[in-house]
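Morning!

As promised:
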Amino acid sequence: MLLKDKTIVLGVSGGIAAYKALDLTSRLIKAGAEVKVIMTRSAAEFVTPLSFQSLSKNAVASDMFEEPKVWEIRHISLAKAADVFAVVPATANIIGKIASGIADDMLSTTIMATKAPKLIAPAMNTNMFENPIVQSNINKLGSLDGYHFVMPESGRLACGDTGRGKLADIGVIFDEIMRLALRDKADLRGKKVLVSAGATSEPIDPVRFITNHSTGKMGFSIAKAAYLRGADVTLVSGRSTCEPINGIKTVNIFTAEEMHKAMTVLSKDADIIIMSAAVADFRPEFEAEHKIKKGSDEKLSLSLVRNPDILSELGRQYGGRKVIIGFAMETRALIESAMKKCAEKNADFIVANNLKTEGAGFGTDTNVASVIEKDGTVTEYPKMEKFKLANIILDKAVDILSK
Ligand code: PMT
């Protein structure tokens, strides 16, 4: 319930993507937010106010001159209540009105009166979106304090055209609202967080490689949690099934050596370094130039050589000066092995997970972890969402930074 006690005023303007704002409403409600919806008259032609009312459990505002249930000036009270004011989807018309200071209906009037951060997610036909007037309105608003945009994607539009103008993914819009709503709790603002995620892959020949089952879910959750807490986040990612996260710089790598290079350069500026990637300890000594053929041999031997231990190197270089967090992935003797890794790799703490524990490790949305600190303190956590564990890890990092 990250958005408990937060009020999101959601302005819905009239476009075919208006129905997607229903999904957004329901996600915001699930995250604990109070959602108050304002619809323009044309939005109500696409989706009924009753749908938003049923999901948000709040009356939908659209008419400026409707008799108020409680005596209050409705647009002013909504403007004041907002922790974030989102306009999803935003048509060329509403963007134009906001940019020109026109306040002639409930939505435009309330936006004009709010001091909350405003998030605008445009959606419209490509030619409209590319129209220099629309672009100039977007640029004008984007240059002002308090106006944020989640830009549309390219794709096939409802009108049949293909191009830019499709409403951004609702998950991306939701994350951006969350980031703005939690800005007062942004305890990592001004901090640089470097996270590694996913699996490294070690080529054998142009066709084959050695890898592991990491999906990147743990590392991406940490990166996203840090971003929502205001950090400037860089993610170094190996093979992963996760979608890129809006607002996070992502460096994609393939091998452990590439991850080593990227982490070495990027760690110079970082305040917090978190190695959650599953890095191959060994790689084939030689990568064959051509596909290895079966031939008549029954056996094939691969000679493997050690990869650099990235965490150990960073721990040696920055231990005590930056916050260094490692993981330990084990199948037995979890705590003993993690304690050894914490000391050997000079980490502030190690997050240990046992692949044999149900709901822990690779590919799951949950993890079951123990945190082993360098003074030997061990804290065991029950099964929880990786995103929640990510926040526990970051709480500890913030604690260390403050000391
Ligand atoms: O990606 P998911 O599917 O969500 O799965 C999550 C996870 C299981 C990958 C994650 O929770 C996890 O345990 N990551 C660490 C995996 C790992 O490589 O553990 P390890 O015990 O082998 O390594 C110990 C630490 O040293 C790790 O922080 C690792 O990133 C680091 N390391 C390891 C080898 C190496 N050559 N260089 C390193 O920096």
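The chain has a mean pLDDT of 95.

Hope this helps with the figure draft.
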